[in-house]
Amino acid sequence: MKQRVLMSALAALAAIVLSGCASEPAAQQSNIQPPHLEKRGNVTQLIVNGEPYLALAGELAGSSATSGIYMAEYWDAIKEAGFNTLLATVYWEQIEPEEGKFDFTRVDDMIKNARERDMKLVFLWFASWKNGVTSHIPLWMKENCEKYQLAQTKEGKPISILTTFCQANWEADAKAFAALSNHIEEVDAEEQTVIMIQIENEMGLHGHTRDYHPAAVEAFNAPVPQKLIDYLVANKDNLIPETKDAWMKAGGKTEGNWEEIFGKGDYTDELFMAWHYASYIEHVASAGKEAYPLPYFVNAWLVQPEDKHPGNYPSGGPQAQNHEMWRAAAPHVDILSPDIYLADFPGILKRYMRGGNPGFIPESKAGHPGAANAAFAFGEMGAIGYSPMGIERQLAREDFKPISWFYYAVENMSDKILQHQADGTIRGIWLKEADGPNSTNKVGDYSPVITQQEIVMGNFKIIVTLNTPRRMRDAPLPQGYAMVMQDGEKDFTILGSNVNVTFLPADGEGFVGLGRSVEGTYNDNGEWVPSRWLNGDDVQLRYDILQAIDEGFSSQGLYFNGAQPQIVKVRLYNYN
């Protein structure tokens, strides 16, 4: 007995000694792969703790995460509002108040509070630029403009924006970002609370189309980097039209300065700035990836209807027309994301997801428009996440609730949605009537009017129509949405709000009837919990039956009334 006790004690001591000597990072010790992006079937998905993850996200207002006292009031309310992911800022000036001395108190507090509520975090690295302006660098940098240099006007006056043409700028940013990444790896590699990082915020140059810092002028007149020329040549057949057209119109040359390769004009200036912003961010991103390789994204300030040229919006940012520069110069940036507040959400998102760019929307609307946006992003575009902005300031507002209702409905069925994304058996519908006199859209902000959409899934044509006041429980809503998932040859799951759904045979032969329609929800285990069996008045879409038959309809369909989404499983059948 004594010998066994002694051996056990020695074994325990050896384990302690070995544990103390371990020098491998936590993620390597437990053989856990960090959060990452992975191609699954038809889409790219975010993988967290080894499983696909759908980010039902919300972003805090810019300064909120800097204070634990401020955040204490909101944590539980955010969780109760249906969010599983929170986008929160990390200020460079707050974590490195003295050069080389880091304070991660706020980072650790955010991770702790998110973990306690089973939430995930996306950190926003507010460093060299926020909204294109330099405001979040440490004071020791602000006071040393000779070393940490600023962009310049044509007249040589400084602009309060760090220039991309100063090595000391990106070296300091990359060093601080690597320190942050190292710390996240040390405290969070096993739990994977932090799942992505945004680098900077809506970067680009304000005012001028390009920087006139002396080093920038020299670079503009120098030969275009060979790295970019090689990229253009290798991807010639697949370049986005904006960049390819500029290159081809200038003669498709493979040698020359920026104006010789792309022609004279504002777009050439913008491409030049995009290359150099992206190159700067590549230094930062590569340093972070070496420390802890989380997925990184950058976000774009969109071109506004009133903008006349680059500089009205931040020139050289990751706007859709600049994506080739960013892909070529910044391979360690995983997603080029749009902040979408303009009316044509579907059109903008499609443009930003060209060329296989994954879909993540870090800033957009809440409420019922936000729910419609998210449904389209998840269902039609295979997006990995959607995030309304400034959520803690809106939680008490009545018009905020529809995004929470949508997230509640989606959360327990997210595994199902993710699998349908990978299988290519899901569609997203976004409907909108004409803007009324109380529209908040800017002048010139194109708001598409789409009150009906037809899709084909398997052997069925599915028609989704914006609801009408006759069937509404509440006042008519200007928008409607649906996600349609095909579970089998004749089986569908539909999540919808403010729409009617009807079914026809795809080949036009015969009729389609509703064999069984059951409303329900998904529980915490992702299991279907049936509720009402829908029939009679609840599925009789039309009573002009003879007219409906002449049009090929069975006269039955599904109602999704009001702003609160419903989930219905339907089994169809064919008859002649």
Summarize the structure in words.
With 576 residues, the chain is of the alpha/beta class. It has 2 domains: 24-339, Alpha-Beta Barrel (TIM Barrel); 430-575, Chondroitinase Ac, Chain A, domain 3 (Sandwich), CATH 2.60.220. The protein is built from 19 helices and 23 strands. The strands form 5 sheets. The chain has an 8-stranded parallel beta sheet with strand order 11-10-9-6-5-4-13-12. It has a 6-stranded antiparallel beta sheet with strand order 14-17-18-23-20-21. A hairpin with a 2-residue loop joins strand 2 and strand 3 (51-53). Helix 10 packs across helix 14. The longest helix has 26 residues, at 266-291. The relative contact order is 0.10. The model is unreliable at 1-29 (pLDDT under 50).
